[in-house]
Predict the 3D structure of the following.
Amino acid sequence: MPDLNARFPSSLMRVSTWTRFVDGSVPVVVMRPERPAATPLPFLLWFHGRTVDKETDPGRYLRLVRAGIGCIAVDLPGHGERPEASMQDGSRTAEVVEQAAAEVDGILADASASGFDPTRAVLGGLSAGGMAAVLRGCSHHPFRGFLLEATTGDWSTLCNRVGFPAVTVERLNPLTHLLGWRDCPVLALHATLDAWIPVEGQRRFIAALQKKSAHPASIEMHEYARTDAPHEHMGFGWMASDAKSRGTRFIAACCDVDVADPT
């Protein structure tokens, strides 16, 4: 387990366990509330963004466990407790995303065996982690909803950037592979001025989901005009607390958990 004394507050450390899922190949931190909303536990399965790790942003996790909701945070391939420098420099981002998406089912199986409820789960991620969530959503899945932050489901906006060769974008671009997308709630949070992942691509993706949905109002995109975060991409800056609260309320609603205002 990494040294987390300066990263996780004691109240979160108390309910967290570091382990590995998928035959010991995927490092995760499993967080169980002291007073769970239900048993087995509704939960968020969360993928972080490139260059950081599953311990990033404990404020998100703390809100969830205080609301009685579990959380399983996963190290992306090549990150955290399974480091590989070439998978963090951007040149292999699409590969990281595709591998992470392929690991979701194994993680779910181990989560179910560990007391979590795969029928009341939300899949989410930030940036590259959000791309993995979207990619997994393009085929049959059990998730109640998707929480997508600073990411995109239209990879054409990234085409021919380092890590996103045109042939890979053509093969995997979620926007053009929505036939298998099951209608369910989605919350997308994005900074309008995001310099790394253009907002236009995510707008198109969300519009496409709304168009094919029987419940378009359940698919929402909220934009922040300015956050002062680095590159208007990393963490939503001074709007971070608002983003975390929106996300917690969304997860609670998807999982049928009554939460007044988790802050």
Observations:
- The chain is about 30% helix and 20% strand.
